[in-house]
Specification:
The complex is a heterotrimer of chains A (about 150), B (about 100) and C (about 300).
Chain A (H helix, E strand, L loop, with lengths): L1 H7 L3 H8 L6 H7 L1 H5 L3 H9 L5 E2 L3 E3 L3 E2 L5 E6 L5 E8 L6 E6 L4 E9 L5 E9 L2 E11 L7
Chain B lengths: L1 E7 L2 E7 L7 H6 L7 E8 L2 E8 L8 E7 L6 E8 L4 E7 L2
Chain C lengths: L1 H23 L5 H17 L7 H4 L5 H7 L18 H10 L6 H12 L8 H4 L11 E3 L4 E3 L1 H11 L11 H11 L13 H15 L9 H7 L4 E2 L2 E2 L12 E3 L4 E3 L1 H11 L10 H12 L10 E3 L1
Classes of the chains: A alpha+beta (about 150), B mainly beta (about 100), C mainly alpha (about 300).
Chain lengths: ~150, ~100, ~300
């Protein structure tokens, strides 16, 4: 992603200020990758966010239920053993906007996260990790039921 | 905000439940309300960023988050901040046990 | 001849007296006890080893699935958690979501509602000095001749103190019930049937439970006794046994708390028939029957639901 590359040019001072946050920068990622946050298609959202959709299968562990008890609350866990993770993003098929979450790695943070997501219907959850510029991806199919007795 | 912070083998694991409607634009329209969902959640330990999560309307109501970071001391506090699309912000704490 | 008639009537009177004496001896729950023990026996046997007893109880589920997805030796108290005590997949998600239960905020709200003063200065504390009251409801009020549910008691407290009653089923009433339930955890359900009228209420509730209705032509019993543990569109049907113990419920579908009356209404709607109004006589009788069937089980509410 653009901002990361900018940091890596080696402007140490800039890196320091970015690491000591004094306020929430809610706009940054959304401004730079506005399309990614609005895309309904998973592949284009991945491309918008990471600059490419070419990813190596594997390298990430994604835990999600085979059959979700309820589409409004699907608990998932994502993690990776890889070193030098820059970020991990989660996408889901069939939601109006496919991008679900982006975790920017921090110095002390461990790339292991849990979250509960909304799924409009049965579909794949896709996790993509940016490991030092290389993309890894894994996906899992989750069945979402309408509701027992038609309710 | 409900938080749990546990220290084990030099790794602090935080779990938190944040009270927020997470009303997506899709549902908000149906209910004739304005969309309201958290867009960014961060956590700081000793002033250092340890969690940087860009959230969307695809996250369930009353978001549950879990994350871990290395190096923490029992009794210390972890600060958790969130901001939503309307600009509302809130701060909470987790005490490491 | 008159002597004969006199003798017969004497015998008749004697028999009638004897039966009424029997009634006054307090055996109005005789049938109810039979029903309850039969239900327990059935459920305990059904969920002892689903894979082994496939032909008897689960002919439409594969043996592999029964072995993989279903718990064995489900004990009486386990049934307090409904389908989560039966299906491993459901239980895994239940455990994950229960790490920090989503109803924590509703409990906070419930506590505030409990302590909030009415316009006249009094509060719920005056009607319910100890919030751990869920094990005392529902009960049959012999003077008033009706079942009293916790929801009804809450709104009667409000009316008594000059406040407008709350909407049934969700929102404030469900949050206050959740607060009561939380403080009632561990208490044993012990619904009593004190007189003939109460027995009639129990029987009315039971009749509703077993009556087929709607365009689907199913009864509560079809799904929650006969087919408890089986699946409808990939969702495990919860059993009648223990259901009263885990209400009010934070249902993922509702994304909020709801009372058992709210669930009754939704379920009846799902069968394709118009449900009775919440807290109407028949729904209170239904709650009475349903609660009685959970006698002997300890309360665990508020709890998660699908």
């Amino acid at each position: 992603m653009n901002r990361r590359n900018f940091m890596e040019i080696g402007v140490g001072v800039l890196a320091m200020t970015l690491v000591s946050p004094l306020h929430l920068r809610a706009e940054d990622l959304r401004d730079e990758h506005a399309k990614a946050f609005a895309d309904s298609d998973v592949r284009s959202a991945i491309k918008d966010l990471f600059g490419s959709d070419a990813a190596i299968e594997g390298g990430i562990k994604l835990n999600a239920p085979e059959i979700a008890a309820n589409g409004a609350v699907v608990p998932i866990r994502v993690s990776t053993d890889k070193k030098n993770v820059k970020s991990i993003a989660i996408f889901v098929e069939h939601n109006p906007h496919s991008l679900v979450a982006v975790f920017e790695q921090t110095k002390r943070g461990i790339p292991r996260y849990s979250l509960r997501i909304k799924m409009a219907k049965t579909g794949k959850i896709i996790a993509v990790a940016d490991v030092n510029g290389k993309l890894y991806k894994t996906e899992k199919l989750v069945k979402v039921t309408i509701g027992g007795c038609g309710g | 905000m409900r938080t749990i912070a546990k220290l084990k083998n030099d790794v602090v694991t935080i779990k938190a439940l944040i009270r927020h409607p997470m009303l997506s634009p899709f549902v908000a329209k149906k209910k004739h309300k304005k969309p309201k969902y958290i867009t960014h959640i961060t956590a700081k330990y000793n002033g250092e960023l340890v969690y940087d999560f860009y959230s969307t309307q695809n996250i369930s109501k009353n978001p549950f988050i879990e994350f871990s970071f290395r190096g923490g001391k029992k009794g210390d506090k972890v600060e958790i901040n969130w901001i939503d699309n309307t600009g509302e912000t809130k701060k909470g704490y987790a005490q490491i046990r | 001849m008159f002597a004969k008639i006199a003798k017969l009537s004497a015998v008749l009177v004697a028999v009638m007296l004897l039966s009424t004496i029997n009634l006054y001896a307090g055996n109005f729950n005789r049938q109810a006890e039979k029903d309850r023990m039969a239900l327990q026996r059935y459920m305990l046997e059904k969920f002892k080893n689903p894979a082994l007893n496939r032909n008897k109880f689960f002919p439409y589920i594969s043996k592999e699935e029964l072995k993989k997805e279903y718990f064995t030796n489900v004990k009486l108290q386990d049934f307090a958690h409904g389908s989560f005590a039966i299906n491993k997949r459901d239980k895994a998600q239940y455990d994950q979501i229960n790490e920090i239960p989503p109803y924590e905020f509703d409990l906070e709200d419930g506590k505030k509602l409990y302590n909030m003063p009415f316009k006249n200065g009094r509060s719920f504390k005056d009607c319910f000095p100890n919030p751990g009251v869920m094990n005392r409801y529902p009960y049959f009020d012999t003077k008033r001749g009706e079942v009293i549910t916790i929801g009804q008691a809450i709104n009667e407290c409000r009316k008594k103190n000059g406040e407008k009653p709350w909407r049934w089923g969700k929102g404030k009433i469900a949050k206050l019930e959740a607060f009561f339930a939380y403080h009632s955890r561990g208490k044993t359900i012990n619904v009593k049937i004190p007189n003939r009228a109460a027995e009639n209420a129990y029987e009315a509730g039971k009749r509703f439970y077993f009556a087929r209705r709607g365009y689907l032509g199913v009864s509560c019993a079809n799904c929650h006794i006969q087919n408890a543990g089986s699946r409808v569109r990939m969702q495990t049907l919860s059993p009648l046994l223990g259901v009263y113990a885990h209400f009010p419920e934070y249902r993922l579908k509702w994304q909020g708390m709801g009372t058992i009356q709210r669930r009754f209404k939704g379920c009846v709607k799902n069968t394709g028939s118009v449900p009775p109004k919440m807290q109407s006589k028949i729904f209170k009788d239904l709650e009475y029957f349903v609660a009685y069937m959970s006698n002997g089980i300890k309360l665990v509410g508020p709890d998660l639901g699908r």
